[in-house]
Write the structure tokens for this entry.
Amino acid sequence: MANLKVGIYCRLSEEDKNKQSETDDSNSIQNQKSMLIQYALEQGWDIYRIYSDDDYTGSDRNRPEFKKLLSDAEHGKIDIVLCKTQSRFTRELELVEKYIHGLFPIWGVRFVSIVDNADTANKGNKKSRQINGLVNEWYLEDMSDNIRSVLTNRRKNGLHIGSFALYGYKKDPEQKGHLIIDKEAAEVVREVFTLFSQGYGKTAIARILNDRGIPNPTEYKRLHGLRYQQPKKKQSTLWKYFAISNMLVNEIYIGNMVQGKYGSVSYKTKQNKPRPKSQWYVVEHTHEPIIDRELWDQVQTLINQRAKPFSTGEIGLFARKARCISCGYTMRSRKMSDGRRYLCCSNRHVSKEACEGAFISVKKLEQAVMKEINRLSEEYLDKDELEEKIEFQNHYLAQKERLEKDIAAYQKRVVEYAKCIRELYLDKVKAVISENEYLNLSKEFTSEKERFEKLVLEAERQLADIEVKIQTGDNRRQLMEQYTKLEKLDCEIVDKLINYISVGKRIPGTKDVPIEIHWNF
């Protein structure tokens, strides 16, 4: 009989990293490898591969070697997963249940961690693995709360806690949390503010910088070896409208530390969401300003004067609805010398390399949209077969499917916690755990069970609403009947019917402009 194949998994935790160089594994990783290799050899197992994630937390589900380990386990390449402790594999109770107690047995994979004696071949210690998972979950939550408390305190004291300094500044090597001016970049910042105060628009300023070959903030930091946020996809080195726009309203340039614009959704995810301005942390006079107060006030006054929101008529008819078919940027409205309104792509004026451009009059776009709405309504009312002609974007079925999956997942967690509570009681009766341990764990399990029961009720309520809408039937016919023989569009009609419109560049030799309408129905 062939020896069992083992996959050794190592992970460096945040609290014990001690790297020798950027390319070497940490001492902790090396120690884990030595310990686990020796243990595997003593058991007579064949080592299939060593999976090593350095500088990753136990709550990170996207660890590259962790994901590779799971893939190899699923495809039968290994028989055993071996770790130093269960927490090295994961600190999340959900993943303990999903993999160690769920999928691993299905895949025929045994899980072993040598320090805390977790072994799925030993059915008797399943409860201890669950308790370990729960303790690790509490650890994650407590650690997250502690880190958040420390960061909040540093923000309130005006200390910079970001990984990257704002363009125009550098991190002070002599004082942690303090910013110092980057003289070369600061000159560009001053020029941007000065040009805007002299009447130049944001797109015009971007073009001036691009024509002079000045790299945008990300490219500047890359060229100078400064830390910067890596873009998810290859990014242009050109200045864009929004880079100028964001710069002109950032109080950091007048010496105020502004932080906390975004907050994490949960300690289990890296996803962030915007926070209201009232929840930002703003501390004045924390570092040397690049822009003096007089110039700042002048620029803010100009910005407020120019910020005239589109409300009625042609000006705002397609606000945030028209997009350039070439680059995807939202097209902006401009009033020409003849008094007519046109939509054009912002990137068109940033640089010749940025975008080939899109340009159309509001009137022409309005006529094209009205013509298409009238055509669709007539076709639907005449033939009653509009759904065969158009790909509708009805999300009700997708929402129903998602909610049904959520309910099933929540109900499963309710059952799991109910089972844990029963098993805890049996352990107490058998004196496996103390009365105090039983009360504490039971309270936690009961609380979680009740939380998931509430989630089930809420999801079921949402599902009932969706079911009513589905049973009532789609309202396409009624919707289109409201808009037959249109002679003029308004903002309400555009907002109700249209998701967005892609506009292209005029076809050479003709007056035709490519238009793609993406409907809401």
Notes: The longest strand covers residues 46-53.
